[in-house]
UniProtKB/TrEMBL annotation, chain A:
Domain Vps72/YL1 C-terminal intervals: 73-102
Keywords for the protein's UniProt record, in alphabetical order: Nucleus, Transcription, Transcription regulation
GO cellular component terms attached to this protein's record: Ino80 complex
Subcellular locations according to the entry: Nucleus
Gene Ontology terms: biological process: chromatin remodeling
Official protein name in the record: Vps72/YL1 C-terminal domain-containing protein
Species of origin: Platanthera zijinensis
Pfam families on file: YL1_C
TrEMBL record, chain B:
Protein's name in the database: Actin-related protein 5
Lineage of producing organism: Eukaryota, Viridiplantae, Streptophyta, Embryophyta, Tracheophyta
Any one cellular-component term (Gene Ontology): nucleus
GO biological process per UniProt: DNA damage response
TM ranges: none
UniProt keyword list: Coiled coil, DNA damage, Nucleus, Transcription, Transcription regulation
Keyword Membrane: no
Family recorded in the similarity comment: Belongs to the actin family.
Protein's organism: Platanthera zijinensis
Locations listed in the record: Nucleus
Bias type Low complexity, positions: 466-477
Gene: ARP5
SMART domains named among the record's database cross-references: ACTIN
Length: 124, 787
C-alpha cells in the first residue's frame, strides 16, 4: 500500500476486536453467496401489510396520495409553462422556437428529456 | 467536500452506561455520545469497494475521501453503494461496513461495543429492516441494548426544548431521499397522520445534474454528482410564486437577469503563438520549391509522352507508306509481319495515336464531323431492300439502323442543348437590358419572382412529403408508421385502393370499357407523380433566377443555403472555443430544481408536494385531535437537509395558508440547525434519565424477537419529563442513569457494569476537548466509589 493511502486511514480493516463475528467469517471469501438482501419492494411485500388492516400506520399507507390538483405542464427543454405537445416525441414545449429545437434533437436526447419526468419509453 | 472524521481517542473514558447516538441518515452518517452537543464523527453514508491496483486486493472504503487518492484503486468495476433503498436500510452488509467504520472512528476497544445505542430510522420502518438492524447490532457488535426513533421527531423535540416550536405542531422534514410530515400532539408524534413523499435532496441534485448535462452536453464530464450538489447548495432557491417567477424569466426581464448566476469552468485558451516571419518565409520557400519540382516532373512526363507518341506515329506512317508501295496480293503476308491484320486497323491505329498526341500537346481534338462524310458508306446497307441481302448482311443492316438512330438522337440532343443555350443567352440579354434600364426595379422584380417561385416549390414539396421526413428525427426510411400523417398524394392513393377494394359486386362491372380506366393502376402505384414536368420547369427557372440574383445582388442568399445555415445554428460550430463556452448559466434551474419538492409531478412522481401533503396530514388526524389543528399550524417546524433552500418557509406558509381556513393562525419556522438538530435531539434524548425505560435490550431480543420489535415504540415526550438538560450538566445525568440502570438491571449484567465503569486514570483528565466534552472525571461520583 502506498504511504499516503495508509496515512489517510481510508481503508477499512477487515478485522475488528469489538466485533463478535468478523466480516470474513460472515461472508467467507471465494464462496458464491448470491444475493442475500431484498429490494424495498420485496421487503414491503413480505411485510404483508394487508393482513394488518387495523388502521395502524405502516410504511405503505403513510405514503402521500397523488396530488388533487391538475398537474401543470412545463416545457421539457426550458422549464417554462408549456401549452403545446409535440405529437411525435411527446415532448412538451413552450413556443415555436423550442419546437424547432425539439425537431432537431436526436432521439437519445429526446429520451433523456422524457426520462427526466419518467415518461421515457423503456424497452425491456 | 470529502469528510474524513478524525479517530477519537477517548472511547475508554466513557462509562458503558453512556449511550452512543447514531443518526443513520441517507446522506450523512453521524455518531457521537449521548448528551454532547455535536456528533463526534460525520461521513457520507456510502461504501466503495474497489480493487487496489498494486496488490490486486479488494479493499473497503467507507465515506468519501480525497478523490486524489483514488488513483491507486481500480474503480472500474465498483461504485459507491448505499445501504439505503429510498429511506429504508436494506443492504446490511453495507450497513455493517459503515458501522465498522463508525465504531472504529469512535475509537471502540474491547471485545464488543459495550454501550447502549440509540439509532434513528425512518417513520414506520418495515419490521424486517428494523429486526435485521437489531440482529446486526446485538449479534455482531454485542450491543447491550438498543433504541430506535425517528430523526425528524428528535429534531422537533429538540427545537421544542429550545422553545422554537410548541408541543402541538407539525414537523416538515425534507431529507435526502424522502420528505415527511409528522404531526405532534402533546409532544407525541401522531404516526397515523404522518405522510411521506418520495422526493428529497437527492432528486433535486439529480434533476439539476441532468438538466445541466442536457443543456451543456460538451461539458458532461465536468458536471459530476459532487459538483451538482455543490451548485445546488450555492445557487438553488425556492420561488415564492413559481408561475410568476417563470414569467419573469420567460420575458427576460432585468430582474431575471440579475437572478441569473454563472458557473465558470476553468478555461485555458488555446495557444496562438505567432510564428516568426523568417520561419514563415522559409516554409513558403520550401513549398514553392516542392511545387516547382512537381511541375518539372509533370513537364518531363509530358515531354517524354509526346516524343513517344511522335515516334510511334512516325513508325506507323512509315508502315502506311510501305503498305502503299506493296502490291495488293502481298498485303496480307506483309501485314502478318506486323501486329495489324488489315489496312483499316492500321488506319484506326494512326488515327488513335494522332488523337492522343494532340491531347498530349493540349491542342483541341479533331471533331468527329469527319464521320459525316462517310455516312453513306457507313450505313451502306440501310437503303438496300431486305430481299437483296444475305442473312449475315441482314444482321449487319439491323446493326447499322440501330447505330444510325442512336447517333441521330445524340445529334438532336446536341442541337436542343445548343438551342437552349441560345434561348438562355437571349433571356439573359433581355434581362440585362431591362436591368440597365432600371436596375432597382429590375432587382425588385427578380426578387419577387424568386420569392414567389421558391414559395410555390416549397409548398409543393411540403404537400408531397408533409414534413414527415423533413427533420430526420425518425422514420428516415420513408415508410409510414402508425400515427403518422399521410401527405395528400399518399391519401389519394389510399382512397383509390380502398374504393378499388370495395366497389366489387356493385352492379355491372364496366371496368376496362374505357381506356382511361387503366390509368387507375398507374395512379395506384407507389411512386406515381402527376405533374412532374411543370415542377421540373419551375425548378429550372428557380435555378436560373438564383444564379442571376447571385450575379447582380451581393446581399442575396439562396433559400436553400439559408436553411442550411439555420439548421447548423444549433450544432456547435467548429470554431475556436472562448471563455463563454466554458460558462454555464444557471437561470431558471435555480428554482426549477427545488420546485420538485412542491410539485413532484415535474419528475414524474405522482404524489402531492410538501404544502398539499401538510393538508393531507391534517386531514388524516384522528377526530379527537381536530381542535388541536389550529395550534398545530401555529407551530410548523421545517427541518432536514433539503429545507436549507432560501425561501422555503415563506413558500410553505403561502401554500399551507391556501388550505387552511381564513384567518386561522399559521406560523412556519425553520429549525435552528436543520441538518444537525435530529442528532442533537437524539443525543439529549439518550441522555435523559428515563431513556433506559425506552430501550429494547438484548434480553428482550432473545425473549420476544421480532414481535417485540414490532410493538416497540419509544415515547418522545420523555424529554419534557426529564426537564431541560443542559449540556454542561450532562455528566450528572449520565451517572444517574448508570445508577438507576444498575438498580433496574436492564443494561446487561451487573458485573459487566461494575467492571467497566470509568477506567482509572493516572494522567490528567481528558479535558482537551473544550466544548464538546462533558464527562469530567474528577466530578464524577463514580470515581469516589472506586477502590
Amino acid at each position: 500500500m502506498e504511504p499516503e493511502v495508509v496515512s489517510s486511514e481510508m481503508l477499512l480493516s477487515p478485522v475488528f476486536s469489538f466485533k463478535k463475528v468478523q466480516m470474513g467469517d460472515k461472508y467467507p471469501k471465494g464462496q458464491a453467496r448470491g444475493r442475500h438482501w431484498k429490494h424495498l419492494k420485496q421487503i414491503l411485500q413480505a411485510e404483508n401489510f394487508q393482513a394488518y388492516t387495523n388502521g395502524r400506520p405502516n410504511y405503505l399507507n403513510i405514503e402521500a396520495p397523488p396530488s388533487a390538483y391538475p398537474s401543470k405542464k412545463f416545457c421539457d427543454i426550458t422549464g417554462f409553462e408549456a401549452p403545446y405537445v409535440d405529437p411525435r416525441t411527446t415532448l412538451r414545449y413552450a413556443n415555436p422556437e423550442i419546437f424547432k429545437r425539439i425537431r432537431m434533437l436526436p432521439n437519445e436526447y429526446v429520451q433523456r428529456y422524457l426520462s427526466l419526468r419518467n415518461a421515457a419509453v423503456v424497452l425491456r | 467536500m470529502a469528510t474524513t472524521p478524525q479517530r477519537q481517542t477517548d472511547y475508554r473514558f466513557f462509562s458503558p452506561a453512556i449511550p452512543i447516538v447514531i443518526d443513520n441518515g441517507g446522506f450523512n452518517f453521524r455518531a457521537g455520545w449521548a448528551g454532547e452537543s455535536d456528533p463526534r464523527i460525520t461521513f457520507r453514508n456510502l461504501v466503495h469497494r474497489p480493487r487496489h491496483k498494486a496488490t490486486g486486493e479488494m479493499v473497503t472504503i467507507v465515506g468519501d475521501h480525497d478523490p486524489a487518492l483514488l488513483k491507486y484503486f481500480d474503480c472500474t468495476r465498483s461504485s459507491y453503494r448505499s445501504a439505503f433503498d429510498s429511506n429504508v436500510v436494506y443492504q446490511f452488509e453495507i450497513m455493517e461496513y459503515v458501522l465498522d467504520y463508525a465504531f472504529e472512528r469512535l475509537g471502540a476497544e474491547g471485545s464488543q461495543v459495550d454501550h447502549p445505542i440509540l439509532m434513528t430510522e425512518c417513520v414506520c420502518n418495515p419490521l424486517s429492516s428494523r429486526s435485521k438492524m437489531a440482529e446486526l447490532l446485538f449479534e455482531t457488535y454485542g450491543v447491550p441494548s438498543l433504541a430506535f426513533g425517528v430523526d425528524a421527531a428528535f429534531g422537533y423535540k429538540f427545537n421544542q426544548q429550545k422553545g422554537i416550536c410548541s408541543e402541538d405542531g407539525l414537523a416538515i422534514c425534507s431529507g435526502f431521499t424522502t420528505s415527511h410530515i409528522i404531526p405532534f400532539v402533546q409532544g407525541e408524534p401522531v404516526l397515523e397522520a404522518c405522510s411521506r413523499t418520495n422526493v428529497g435532496g437527492y432528486h433535486v441534485t439529480y434533476y439539476l445534474k441532468q438538466l445541466l448535462s442536457l443543456k451543456y452536453p460538451y461539458h458532461i464530464s465536468s458536471i459530476t454528482w459532487e459538483k451538482a450538489e455543490e451548485l445546488k447548495l450555492e445557487h438553488c432557491y425556492v420561488a415564492f410564486d413559481y408561475a410568476a417567477e417563470l414569467k419573469l424569466f420567460q420575458k427576460g426581464t432585468k430582474e431575471a437577469e440579475e437572478k441569473t448566476t454563472f458557473w465558470q469552468l476553468p478555461f485555458i485558451p488555446p495557444s496562438q503563438e505567432e510564428e516568426p516571419s523568417e520561419e514563415l518565409a522559409r516554409k513558403a520557400a520550401l513549398k514553392e520549391k516542392q511545387g516547382q519540382r512537381l511541375r518539372d516532373i509533370a513537364a518531363l512526363k509530358k515531354f517524354t509522352r509526346i516524343s513517344e507518341l511522335e515516334s510511334e506515329l512516325h513508325d506507323l506512317e512509315d508502315l502506311v507508306q510501305q503498305l502503299e508501295e506493296v502490291e495488293e496480293e502481298e498485303i496480307y503476308p506483309f501485314l502478318s509481319t506486323t501486329v495489324y491484320n488489315s489496312r483499316q486497323e492500321l488506319e484506326s491505329a494512326v488515327h488513335r495515336v494522332t488523337q492522343s498526341l494532340r491531347k498530349a500537346r493540349g491542342e483541341p481534338l479533331e471533331s468527329e464531323d469527319k464521320s459525316d462524310t462517310s455516312l453513306s458508306e457507313k450505313y451502306s446497307l440501310i437503303n438496300v431492300p431486305d430481299s437483296e441481302l444475305a442473312p449475315e448482311q441482314l444482321k449487319e443492316k439491323k446493326k447499322q439502323i440501330f447505330l444510325k438512330t442512336t447517333s441521330e438522337g445524340r445529334l438532336r440532343a446536341k442541337q436542343k442543348k445548343f438551342e437552349e443555350e441560345l434561348l438562355r443567352e437571349k433571356q439573359n440579354q433581355q434581362d440585362e437590358e431591362k436591368r440597365l434600364e432600371n436596375p432597382e426595379l429590375y432587382l425588385e422584380e427578380t426578387r419577387a419572382k424568386y420569392r414567389d417561385l421558391s414559395e410555390r416549390l416549397e409548398q409543393r414539396k411540403r404537400l408531397k412529403t408533409n414534413g414527415s421526413r423533413s427533420n430526420g428525427n425518425n422514420n428516415s426510411s420513408g415508410g409510414i408508421g402508425r400515427g403518422e400523417r399521410l401527405n395528400s398524394a399518399q391519401k389519394e392513393r389510399m382512397r383509390l385502393l380502398t374504393t378499388a377494394a370495395f366497389d366489387r359486386g356493385k352492379g355491372e362491372d364496366t371496368f376496362g370499357a374505357k381506356d382511361e380506366d387503366w390509368q387507375l393502376y398507374k395512379m395506384m402505384s407507389k411512386d406515381y407523380d402527376d405533374d412532374d414536368d411543370s415542377f421540373e420547369e419551375d425548378e429550372a427557372e428557380l435555378g436560373r433566377l438564383t444564379t442571376r440574383l447571385q450575379e447582380i445582388d451581393e446581399t442575396f442568399v439562396a433559400k436553400s443555403d439559408m436553411e442550411l445555415l439555420q439548421g447548423t445554428l444549433e450544432i456547435p460550430w467548429p470554431r475556436p472555443l472562448t471563455v463563454e463556452d466554458y460558462k454555464m448559466t444557471l437561470g431558471i434551474e435555480r428554482f426549477r430544481c427545488p420546485e420538485i419538492l412542491f410539485q413532484p409531478n415535474m419528475i414524474g412522481v405522482d404524489q402531492a408536494g410538501l404544502d398539499e401533503m401538510t393538508g393531507g396530514s391534517l386531514r388524516r388526524l384522528p377526530t379527537q385531535y381536530t381542535e388541536a389543528k389550529n395550534s398545530m399550524c401555529n407551530s410548523i417546524l421545517v427541518l432536514g437537509g433539503s429545507s436549507l433552500f432560501p425561501g422555503l418557509e415563506s413558500r410553505l406558509e403561502a401554500g399551507i395558508r391556501k388550505i387552511r381556513p381564513y384567518l386561522s393562525p399559521l406560523k412556519v419556522v425553520r429549525s435552528m440547525d436543520p441538518v444537525l438538530d435530529s442528532w442533537r435531539g437524539a443525543a439529549s434524548y439518550a441522555a435523559a434519565m428515563e431513556f433506559p425505560t425506552q430501550i429494547f435490550s438484548i434480553q428482550d431480543y432473545y425473549e420476544k424477537g421480532e414481535s417485540g420489535l414490532r410493538q416497540y415504540q419509544i415515547k418522545y415526550s420523555l424529554l419534557r419529563l426529564a426537564g431541560r438538560i443542559r449540556a454542561g450538566r450532562m455528566h450528572i445525568t449520565a451517572v444517574k442513569c448508570g445508577v438507576w440502570i444498575s438498580a433496574v438491571g436492564r443494561w446487561g449484567s451487573a458485573s459487566q457494569h461494575k467492571t467497566s465503569g470509568f477506567p482509572r486514570k493516572s494522567t490528567a483528565p481528558q479535558e482537551q476537548r473544550s466544548s464538546g466534552m462533558m464527562i469530567s472525571v474528577e466530578t464524577s461520583p463514580l470515581r469516589q466509589t472506586k477502590p
